[in-house]
Amino acid sequence: MKYHITLHNDIQEVPQLAAFIDEVAEACGIDMATAMSLNLAMEEAVVNVMNYAYPAGTVGNVDIDAEFDDGKLTFILSDSGTPFDPTQTGEPDLTLGAEDRPIGGLGIFLVRQIMDSVEYRYSDGKNILTLTKNIQSNN
Amino acid sequence: MNTTIKEQNGELVAVLDGRLDTAAAVQTEKDLQPLADCAGKNVVLDCNALEYISSSGLRLFLSVLKNAKGKGSHVFITGMNNDIRNVFAMTGFTNLFEFR
Q: Domain A2-134, CATH 3.30.565.10 — does that match?
């Protein structure tokens, strides 16, 4: 099963992403808690592209392809913005107290926490981020 | 996403209702602005009707906490669902807040 959606670099389109993820999760028989985690990981990955891939004031696309095969759900995000490898960002220090905790820096960390693999490549002028999640069968 | 601020038993209570995603965070940040003036009052973030939170929402929660701590106030969270509890655990936010 394959699914696709194209969004613009506009964070007001995040609810459309959520609807898309819910549709994919339902079609693949994925439980609600896992669907919510997938929603979170995908929101963080896509918002990162929406906010940073394209120069401010310009319109750009982010394409999201999803495929469910043999218990593995794969998402491929692609955009033609500035080359950026989110797998190279630093880990936040989760042990810091409230006073010292920086505001932000958790989005990509959440992606890595939730997904089983996150791989980046730059090819033909596009950032391509491949995220996979192994889905446990209810059978 | 709907946010309501009320004063109850000498505390500032923010009732969060809906999906706090990146799209909703801009308005929610404005709606939470009254909590900035919390000197002498504790703050309660009522999450009984909060369905979802992403890092944009966590950022707002942390801002409320940093401000309140700076004024000597406590921030209590009530009624988080299991999914949101899990997000708090993953990000170490469980250790930052007080829960009721």
A: yes
